[in-house]
Amino acid sequence: MFAKFKQIFAPQNKDLRKKILFTFFGLFIFKLGTTIVVPGIDTDSLGTTNLGFLELINAMGGGALEQFSIFALGVMPYISASIIVQLLQMDIIPYFSELSKQGGTGRTKLNQITRYLGIILAFIQGYFFSFAFVSNGTPTDYLTYALILTAGTALLLWIGDQITAKGVGNGISLIIMAGIIATLPNMFMEAFNSLIVTTSTQAMVLGIIKFALFVLLYIGIILGVVYIEGAERRLPIQYANRSTTMVGQKQNYIPFKLNSAGVIPVIFASAIITIPGIIAQVIKKDGFTLFVSKYLSQTSFTGFVLYIICIFGFAYFYTFFQLKPKELADNLSKNGGYIPGIRPGDETVKYVSKVLKRITTVGAFSLAVIAALPILFGMISTMPTSVRVGGTGLLIVVGVALETYKQIDSELATRSFTRGRKRR
Description:
By secondary structure, this protein is mainly alpha-helical.
């Protein structure tokens, strides 16, 4: 890894350094925007001191929702819109299914639809959040706040696109990662202040040991997430129309990631669980609010069980939505490929489905454990609610960091290969 950093600062990779600097500049603009409160808002009267079920959105936005800044919604409306558009491609609406089969032209059209749908969702969410958190406002005030929040989301999407085009990595993903990372220093400071008590030397030493264990636990979970993200099951593939000599005795295989669905199942499950809470926040009825907090919140037994079930359900659903065994078997058959020991056709479909079910069970269990860690930690710990161990945010940070590193590594390898050919 250190060798890669050394290559980045090599004189011949000046253009890559410019891309990295441009990426950091775009993320700096995002972080700066999280400190700008929506105009006309009295911060003392805001009801964002205890976000509860919206803590995930706040973390992804770098604390923007808590301050009710112009970037309070972050890019979550776009993420929600992209998930909806992906679901609509499953032969639910024929128009979307046709677009998904049209290659680059279809993807461009789907991206435009996702953008428009994301802006609409941003306005709806902005109005709900304004009504829920800002007291004593008029309908015109709430409409104005919603428009400002929508404009903030639109600006973030534009910044993300610029980072993708002129920087390194996926801009939208990097914005989410930057928002989560921005909250980590404050989280560790709060953990430090809550664990280390200066009433006596013995208490302070014990607190330092506890804090050191907390940091080691956090690092251990990060290593576990890295392992899960990199784990994969490889299905060997042979081709009837290629001899061993033609392929240079190189083994071909289809890689199935242990966690093929990524963080989508956790985001989906979190969205389902938070819907009743958002409704309770808006209608402000004591009876309904009590029912939601008692039976549907993540900290309640029923809410926690429902959350885990949703993670497993969406993990299976999204994995089989992305990796369609029937299409995979058909493509293998068209290219003259087959899995050794498995007949082409229905047997291949059954075998691939069986493998996917097994690895998805393990992957979903891993997701559920990581997602449940902050909830369980909050139940047994006396530390502030902002101090979390594991969770969705950590999954996102590790996943985006690995993908960005792979892209930089690929660009360095391409440049090295090109320079080697020029020397010849």
